[in-house]
Amino acid sequence: MTIKDTPEEWRVTATATPFRGNKTGVRTDDVVMPDGSVARRDYQVHPGSVAVVALDEDGRVLVLRQYRHPVRQRLWEIPAGLLDVPGENPLTAAQRELYEEAHVKAVDWRVLADVYPTPGGCDEAVRIFLARDLSQAEGERFPVLDEEADMELARVPLQDLLRGVLAGDLHNNCLVVGVLSLTAALAGEGAGSLRPAEAPWPARPFEA
Predict the structure, then answer these.
(1) Is the pLDDT assigned to residue 79 strictly greater than 70?
(2) Is 198 known to be catalytic?
(3) What does R_g of the chain's alpha carbons equal in angstroms?
(4) Is residue 122 within 8 Å of 43, Cβ to Cβ?
């Protein structure tokens, strides 16, 4: 038996967008259920995101600590950002985010996981990369604003992050998935067995 998610689309009889924000919006669809009834579903429309588990030669992961207003917490996270340009190659976006948030570049890139963080209420798709062979980026640091101006940057051993995830001390979705995925990969066939950085991503098709 193959365990695999599959595409499917139930019929929509009406749709509206009652709210549009700067990057996301809210859509309301009237969806036909299997028994023929119609149910209204509200969800956030999102362009998609990328995130990066940047692993250095000492087995440490580059993490950022940032205030997140919706949950009223300062969370430890991995570098991440929106797919701002429609059709943009997610690897290009991930490389940009690693540079902008940490002023770091990487030589070796792999795909760790593709996830829908909240599929019951948002269509956001996230591709999480593994980046290795790190070095400091050249030139001046990217200017930061708002919450990012107060960010902390650290390199934390992977095993310390794993303990924090399992203890319930770390909550950021991309960090949790990235740490667990990398730990599993390293305990199994190794990082070399991961998908290449340009692997297809049906949730957010991109140009090569």
Answers:
(1) yes
(2) no
(3) 19
(4) yes
Q: pTM of the prediction? A: 0.93
Span 199-206, average pLDDT? 94
Q: Which of 77, 100, 147, 148 is catalytic?
A: 148
Torsion sign across C-alpha atoms 47, 76, 106, 192:
negative
Residue 201 in domain: no
- Nearest CA to 56 out of 1, 102, 121 is that of 102
Nearest to 143 by CA among 93, 103, 84, 94: 103
Residues 132, 133, 139, 140: what is their CA dihedral angle, to the nearest 10 degrees?
Answer: 40
Q: Are 67 and 157 part of one and the same domain?
A: yes
Residues 100 and 153 in one domain: yes
Question: What share of the chain in percent tops pLDDT 70?
Answer: 95
**Cβ–Cβ under 8 Å, residues 128 and 177:** yes
> What pLDDT, on the 0 to 100 scale, is given for residue 142?
62
Residue 128 covered by a domain: yes
